[in-house]
Design brief:
Number of strands: 7
Order of helices and strands: HHHHHHEHEHEEHEHHEE
Shape: globular
Helix content: 40-55%
Strand order of the largest sheet: 3-2-1-4-5-7-6
């Protein structure tokens, strides 16, 4: 079910917030409003997941790579919306790292990071002594993550190119942070089930929650498409994610919600029962 405490903290939509959102759509592939034009999405509504995958792969191998590589770095070449998303993503990563530091037992454990991006989570986990296997659908992203790790002298992490469904193996912990935004609703439960199948102990997953407020933001974003091509954005019912975890034999043990102006992410940790 929805976290009522988190719901109560969410901002109510004001005219100012909606105007800010409209202005943001043309600037950035932000987490909730980043939806391409309504005419495009309506004509392509019935396309398969393969098309979503192709779109995401092409985007993050081309203009999306340079944009998100700047967001996920210390670069000053970002606008206010991108900076807001960077801060939100950093908060989610920090929350995961705090949990793992508090547990104090990650050293020597295996971690599979699906949709690793430029290594925002995989690299600090490797520095904490975990054995990392990290992948991304974008070859450009995976190579950048590997280059960053190499520049830091990290030897206990491997980065490779793969879509999430093709990842295999067994790992103590499986992480998938801010990737579900690219997954269609009807594929979400299957995706969560696959993540669970890779894990012997724990799964950490974040997603943009489908609440009335975030759905309203997304709708406004669709009405005012920006000129730059982005990927489609999907919000997810929390109950769908929780049910998929439960069906796979996992129980939610910790949870967090991170919300900035343009970044919204529900974080769940689930352990095998």
């Amino acid at each position: 079910g929805e976290c009522r405490a988190c719901e109560s903290k969410m901002k109510t939509p004001t005219a100012a917030a909606l105007l800010l959102l409209v202005g943001a759509v043309s600037q950035s592939n932000a987490f909730v409003p980043s939806v391409s034009s309504a005419s495009r999405s309506s004509s392509r509504a019935f396309m398969s997941t393969v098309d979503d995958k192709t779109e995401v792969r092409e985007y993050f191998n081309n203009e999306g790579f340079s944009r998100w590589n700047k967001i996920y770095s210390e670069s000053d070449d970002v606008n206010s919306v991108q900076l807001d998303i960077r801060n939100g993503h950093d908060q989610t990563i920090a929350k995961i790292l705090r949990w793992i530091e508090a547990d104090g037992d990650i050293k020597g454990k295996t971690v599979c990071d699906c949709g690793c991006g430029v290594g925002s989570l995989a690299i600090p986990l490797a520095q904490m002594g975990a054995k990392i296997s990290a992948s991304d659908i974008s070859d450009a992203m995976a190579k950048e993550a590997g280059a960053r790790a190499k520049s830091m002298g990290i030897k206990n992490a491997k980065f490779y190119t793969s879509d999430l469904e093709s990842v295999t193996g067994k790992y103590n912990t499986v992480t998938c942070v801010d990737v579900a935004i690219h997954y269609p609703t009807d594929k979400m439960a299957e995706m969560v089930g696959h993540l669970c199948s890779l894990s012997t102990d724990r799964v950490l997953i974040s997603f943009a929650p489908k609440t009335w407020y975030y759905s309203a933001l997304k709708k406004v974003g669709e009405l005012f498409p920006g000129p730059s091509k982005t990927t489609r954005a999907y919000l997810h019912e929390e109950s769908v994610v929780r049910n998929a975890l439960s069906k796979a034999g996992f129980e939610v043990t910790r949870e967090e919600m991170t919300g900035t102006n343009f970044y919204f992410s529900r974080l769940l940790e689930a352990k095998r029962v």
